[in-house]
Specification:
Layout lengths: L1 E5 L16 H11 L11 E3 L6 H11 L7 E3 L13 H4 L2 H14 L1 E6 L4 H9 L9 H11 L3 H10 L7 E4 L2 H13 L4 E4 L10 E4 L11 E4 L5 H12 L7 E5 L5 E9 L4 E11 L3 E6 L9 H18 L3 E9 L5 E7 L6 H11 L8 E8 L4 H10 L11 E6 L9 E7 L2 H15 L5
Parallel strand pairs: 1-2, 1-4, 2-3, 7-8
Antiparallel strand pairs: 5-9, 6-7, 6-9, 10-11, 10-13, 11-12, 12-15, 13-14, 15-17, 16-17
Helix pairs in contact: 8-9
């Protein structure tokens, strides 16, 4: 049966007030949702916040082999916040509900594939009268999705199961946070303060005792001495704690670490590995390297085993569907876990491309680099250039460049290219050629 893909990138509480993201970034996120086209199958319905490039859709349908039963894209009317993202009022608009209901009946679509499960998705499922809208629907809509997207709950779950995490704690007040932060800053150690529910590093802040730390996984770095920690955290506590409604994670920030992830799919009877890789942070997520270069470390098999333990624990809780688990490789080679996200992620469409174009366990004999924030004047022109230069993906060799995301309707570059090669060095060399022939911005 067909499905209804919903590109709802963010929860409602992360888009207003002092947690609001810049308008340009919201526009970028809208374009990012277009990449969900790679998750489509024949006759699917795709709900997006903005219109994707029709040339991009044709490119995707051709490579997925569904040109004869192509999915249909639906963009709801604008809401009170405009049309940057799929806010609840857009998903609940009567005209939109009627149109999607009609399409679902015509195409036999009986389930949802949302980016994130929240009240808006629950309301949409009820309005469409879907009997079994998604796996573990009752668990997710009863607050389960909050649990599997919570940084504070992750620390609790990981600590209780002997999973290694950075030195840190979950705190309830600015004073409690300052008690943890102060001695670390005085000793010359940076600290990261994490909002409980957010994504891509946004909402996080690194507190550094001296200049010179670039950092990743946070939208800002603040230089601060230990004596000023209490005042700074008091001033910023409303932002960190969602106006006091949520706990906050404070952890020692390990400079020189490399961020990695593993994506799993939690089913009724198994926990399946979708893929794993390294996140390129500049300073927030800006691409992937698959498999991660750290896969050769002695600690990596343990990372895979511990990730599966987390997956099995989450499965026992009742979660079903995708979940991405993030960790860091510290300079010593040890791997520490730091959060999970029980939703579709930035790697989901990449591994879907890998499965379809390269084959299951595509990370075993191919290296992939997903380069984000690519831009071009014409997608057709970019595709033609790749073909002329011999860089376009070749199904026979299972190597080359795939256009993974379009750069349509945004003020800055928002496209994505997926480079597939036999090894990471070969993929990096191919990426350098790609940057040159398409005139992409450098790193």
């Amino acid at each position: 049966m067909a499905k209804i893909i919903i590109g709802n990138q963010l929860t409602e509480e992360t888009v207003e007030g002092d947690r609001a993201l810049p308008a340009e970034y919201l526009t970028y996120l809208a374009a990012v949702t277009h990449r969900l086209a790679w998750c489509a199958e024949a006759d699917d319905i795709i709900v997006l916040p903005t219109e994707p490039d029709t040339e991009f859709l044709a490119y995707v349908w051709k490579r997925l082999g569904i040109e004869d039963a192509r999915p249909v894209v639906v963009v709801p009317p604008p809401g009170r916040r405009g049309s940057s993202l799929l806010y609840d009022d857009r998903l609940h608009h009567p005209d939109f509900i009627r149109r999607v209901g009609k399409l679902a009946a015509e195409r036999g679509a009986d389930r949802l594939f949302p980016f994130y499960v929240d009240a808006g998705i629950a309301g949409l499922a009820e309005a469409l009268e879907l009997k079994d809208p998604l796996p573990a629907y009752s668990f997710l809509t009863a607050g389960g999705n909050e649990l599997v997207n919570s940084k504070t709950f992750f620390r609790t779950l990981a600590s209780g199961n002997g999973i290694p995490v950075p030195h840190g704690r979950t705190v309830n007040s600015a004073a409690e946070a300052a008690d943890f932060v102060r001695p670390l800053l005085r000793a010359g150690h940076p600290v990261i303060v994490k909002q409980d529910v957010h994504g891509g590093g946004y909402g996080n802040e690194i507190l550094a005792p001296a200049e010179g730390l670039e950092g990743y996984g946070a939208e800002r770095v603040t230089v601060l001495d230990g004596d000023a920690a209490a005042g700074h955290l008091s001033d910023s506590w409303a932002r960190h704690s969602h106006d006091g409604r949520r706990q906050v994670v404070v952890e020692q920030y390990v400079d020189g670490s490399v961020p990695i992830y593993i994506e799993l799919y939690i089913a009724d009877d198994e926990v399946r590995t979708v893929g794993h890789g390294e996140m390129r942070m500049a300073p927030v997520n800006n691409g992937l390297v698959i498999p991660p270069p750290s896969a050769g470390l002695p600690s990596f098999p343990g990372f895979l085993d511990q990730a599966r333990r987390i997956g099995e624990t989450v499965r026992a809780l009742g979660h079903r569907g995708p979940i991405s688990i993030d960790a860091i490789v510290v300079p010593s080679g040890e791997i520490l876990f730091n959060e999970f996200n029980g939703r579709v992620g930035g790697s989901t469409h990449i591994h879907r491309i890998g499965d379809h174009l390269i084959g299951p366990e595509h990370w075993a004999d191919r290296a992939l680099i997903a380069r984000s924030r690519c831009g071009w004047d014409s997608l057709a022109g970019a595709v033609a250039t790749l073909e002329e230069q011999g860089l376009a993906f070749d199904p026979a060799t299972r190597t080359g460049v795939v256009i993974a995301g379009d750069s349509h309707g945004t003020p800055g570059p928002s496209g994505q290219c997926l480079i597939v090669a036999h090894s990471v060095p070969e993929a990096r060399a191919m990426e350098a050629r790609l940057v040159e022939i398409l005139g992409l911005e450098g790193d």
